[in-house]
Amino acid sequence: MGKKISLTIFGLLMAAGALMWVFQLWKGLVLTDMHNGYSWGLYISALAFFVGNAAGGLVVSSMIYLFGVTALKPFARIGALCAFANVSAAMLIVLPDLGRPFRVLNLLLHPQIMSPLVWDVIVLNLYAFLSLTYLYLLMLPDLAASSGVLKKIALPVKDPAGFSDTWAHRLAPVSLVAAVGIHVVTAWIFSTQGARGWWHTAVLAPDFVAAALASGTAVVMCVAVLCYGPAEKFQAAFRILAVFIATAFLIHIFLMYNDFVVHAWYGADEAKDILAITLREYGPAHAFEVLAPLLGVALLLSRRVRKTASGIMTGCLLIISGIFVHRVLLMPAAFNHVPLTLAPLGSPNTHWSVPIASGRYHPPADTFVTHHSYFPTFVEILIFTGALSFVCFVVILAIHKLPILKKG
Amino acid sequence: MRRGMVIDLEKCIGCRSCAVACKQHNAQPAGTWWNRVVTPGSDRHLTPPDTGNMYFLPVHCQHCQNAPCVKVCPVGATYQTDDGVVLIDYDRCIGCRYCMAACPYGVRQFNWEPSNTAMKRYEYQDGYTFGYPEPFRLNNRLVYSPVRIKGVVEKCHFCVHYQEQGLDPACVRACPGKARHVGDLDDPDSRVSRMVQKMNGFTLLPEKGTKPNVYYLPPKRKEI
User: Fold this and answer.
1) Model ipTM value
2) Residue among A29, A107, A357 whose CB faces B32 most closely
3) CATH 3.30.70.20 fits B3-217, yes or no
């Protein structure tokens, strides 16, 4: 009954998001709050967010099949499922960001191999395919033992359990490379851009990996506790995940502040300007992206908290929402620092930004601007909510229809 | 042949005629400006900055040799011609705006809505049209169209539609200060090359390594 209600709610939210997208297709991206100087917003932040959340699946399976952490075995299918749902959402949320989404086929007809966006499309599709294959392999023994449609889709092999195990082992290293690959390549979309000081740092790719390992694993832990509850036999697995999340998040914090310190110490005007946007203008958001997950980590590390489903849920959601805010903060310091700044003649210590034509009609505002307080519109928020609901919908439906959970 | 431009800041009077001519000749939708002229250091154009000297800086696409916009475009809609001009194929652009994030000069403009609704929003009189009236294809790629569809990126194309008629870009022809010059930067004896060499030509943001084909000559003094 609960499943039906949640499927209905997420289904309706998906429909609302789709409807908003149709509306946006009709009217144009004028319905968003982006402009020429601030050309990416919630949709691209959401791309990075979903890509990060997709990490969990193959983290779990590689821990089991590469590093022999068998305690996590009951969560392996949940992991692969969450990976597939999130990486699909990542690819979906890019579509509403495109001005001409129906031309997306041009990516196949005229791919330009130097573009990191092309690399990202390739690795995201590969990862989606791999996580689906993994899910299928892990379910194979149960599929073979079932009846009806599920039996029909099972590969006719003599020893399904043995086959599943062998191939899960063989695919594990490939999946681990692909899993790291999606974060690295997604980070390269940003970090290759010399125009944007906020992104143009070698630390971005490792930081994307660390943040993804934290949020992606939190997604798996969250779904696992919803499915199985905090039963005693899963406590060892929850402890491993909690330690893993904590380590990954602390590495993320280290990488981020390491970069801040290096730039703040040297104190170039450009770096100070960029850091001020994140630390001062978006100070409360920055505090949240650090403190909320830290609280989440503290909760998850407590054995007492891990005994309750609500405790684990709260911890995981704090981490996921903190990483979400981290992804949102990818944009302001990149776009509100105008790359074309110069020192006017006779005033060498001045740091002056050349304004950009916003391309948007706001009668009280200037035509040429250097700053924009971007906040996603209702349309952007609903479309994002639709993609988020898609993830929940797919996960719930799959758990309902497929042998995802271990019986008994 | 490397088509380039030299803008003599000593001669620029900040009148923004180039921006207007550019907008008119290229039928730019309401709110879209391929070309802008600013007074560095001052928040108000044509107003001296609090400190330092007043001069004027026109900025449009720099037609970089190492153009980040060309490299990021996933579908090759933004591309470089043999003579070094960076163009956009309006028929191929998917509107991902990666090029806008990549461009350090802030010159790329997106069609956030269809050009006719943008014109209505700005309350242009019904039926008013302007600009070069025909679409222009270069090697069968649509690099100019008087009517813009929503969702594609556009920017300065060195008036590619006038080139085959032997005409200079609209901004060059319209400049009352005669501050703008075009020519072949590959030819060391061309007028533009000699101007760059003899008059200390410089480019914007050389530290970004984009190698622009638009050069500026430094201003010496400025009448107000």
Assistant:
1) 0.95
2) A357
3) yes
